[in-house]
Amino acid sequence: MCGRFTLRRPAKVDIEGLSSTELFDSAPRYNIAPSQLILAISETDERRVASLYKWGLVPSWSKDTARIINTRAETLQRKGSFKEAFERRRCLVPADGFYEWKKSGKFKQPYFFQLKDESPFMFAGIWDRWGRGESAITSCAIITTTPNTLLASIHDRMPAMLRAEDQDSWLRSNARADELKAMLKPFPAAEMKSFPVSQAVNSPHADDPHLVEPTIESLPVSGLLFEL
Q: Would you state the CATH architecture of domain 4-102+117-194?
């Protein structure tokens, strides 16, 4: 799964055709968590827009506002929750790193993953708009796929990271489903790096540069075990 990620240098996000880049001047974020507002890029009628979305998809037909933060690439076309959004409402979610937790008994050690050159990249996402009366939520979910060899020993899923050459096609309204599904493969492990980080990232309220600094793997401490 993908439960936390970073966008430390939003100004370095590079994508052509945006109607406005104002949102890319926002403050760096080191611990983006579910239910928070996140930056995402979508395209409607060939107009490309960067907007803030609630992280946690609420389908338009849902009776309540229960949120889904991740959806599996393998079931996008089979589940009603995601099929229409996959076909009509895809988005790019800018990031420059993400966290995953390695489980050892009841203890979970967080790891940080990023590209070797630490540059931004794009998660594949889907979005929807839910409304009841005066209440409205525009939300999105990040798609996950099978892990590459770097992640395989940590977790059995990883976020779908799109290659630069696939980003335009992901947003294109006339893209074929088979083309889109082919993009949702594990990102090459040889282009990534990872290391253990502080348990401080477990708190969604923590958001500072120290969270992405390498540390030695922590040991379980009685009363301080973390369950994701």
A: Alpha-Beta Complex (3.90)
